Amino acid sequence: MDQIIEFANSHVMLAVSAIAVTLMALIYEIRLKTQGFREIAAADSVRLINQGAMVMDLRKREQFNAGHIINARNIEPDQLDAKLADLKNNLEQPIVVCCDSGISSGRVAARLHKQGFTQVYNLKGGLAAWRNENYPLESKGSQRKGK
Q: Which of the listed residues 24, 89, 92, 133 has the most CB atoms within 10 Å of its CB?
């Protein structure tokens, strides 16, 4: 213990930095646990989709029609309250929420969790991450398209 104190006294900035990084990591982990939903990578979302998860695409209709995850439902954020009654039929069904970048879908995922949905997942990085992994998309008027 004396060596730790001696080191901290000799290297104050390094010790303060180590404490700050540790606190930031703890705060981040606590925030993840309390937000009520998980962020998942594209590969993990494929696994969930294959197991029957619903995909909720929050982008505008035109963007959705240009290319979306296969079998995704397009629900724009301002339509969510109106469509919530239909979704509440199965609060246990896994839902993968996505948008262009994963930011606005995170807010909607938190709303869904507050409404009682137990398995809500946000696609980390959104459709941009999906495209980067070269996963298939389908568009209005075509069966499937890849990138």
A: 133
Residue at token pair 């309250």: 81
In terms of domains, do 52 and 87 share one? yes
Residue 138 in any domain: the answer is no
pLDDT tens per residue, range 116-134: 898 999 999 999 999 999 9
Please indicate, yes or no, if residue 106 is contained in any of the structural domains.
yes
Q: Is 98 a catalytic residue?
A: no
What distances in angstroms separate CA 131 from CA 57, 68, 84, 145, one per listed residue?
14, 10, 28, 11
pTM of the full structure? 0.73
Q: Could you list the residue range(s) of the whole structural domain that residue 16 is in?
A: 2-33
Over the stretch 76-95, which tens digit does the pLDDT of each residue have?
A: 888 888 888 788 888 889 99
